[in-house]
Write the structure tokens for this entry.
Amino acid sequence: MSATPAAARDVRVVDLPLHVPGQGDTARAWLVAADGADDDGRPRPGVLWLHWLGHRHNDRSEYLPLAVELASRGVVSLLPAGHFPWVPDPDGTATDVQRVRDQVAAHATALDHLCAQPRVDPARVALVGHDYGGMYAALLAAQDERITTLALQAPDESWGSWFASFWLRLEGQARAEYAARFEGLEPVDKVRRLAERLGEGMLFQWAGKDTFVRPTVRAAYEEANPKARSVEYPDADHMLDDRAAADLEAFLAERLALS
């Protein structure tokens, strides 16, 4: 375990391993918190951040600046590195389904680690995800009631869609058969099941110039949870923009009762 210099005074960023039961690989994560926050006795909100697969900050560094900023407001953050499909590519077989399940299990281990931190308030635990990170966030929130707030940035509605389109180039019957393998794991279905529990505690953020997420995907998520806040950023591409980041921070501040 090693400490990394933080960009803000009195905030520590600690690099640590996460050992996932039943999996040979060890994930890495950054734990971000205000220095000395464990000593004042006050409960702290926690946030688990799941990054995107993109052309910039294609790793756990995506949310690091925001995690450092929020640490000064008392938030304890954990930023794990994603493995699938960041490292192995989808291969079009049942292995892809198992890899999705394994990644959810790895993120569940990260959530356990976050919630085990001293003073983390079990009533104020948020989960944020972008792109594939958002899709995994929906699955994790659906299986873990410790999540009280959920923010999804530009997710797709199904695993088969992006895998088939950008890796496997599947069409027609082959595409349909591949998509059917993920029955019971589709993110938008998980959001539908979460709607009653989280309701207004869910945020959707969409890019107006997104070339990866179709308008029908946004409609499907909004139908799945009509109570969620759903915001489009007309000039943003799939990476989203500073306005989206500011709105995300404001949403978390409200939901987590930040000072």
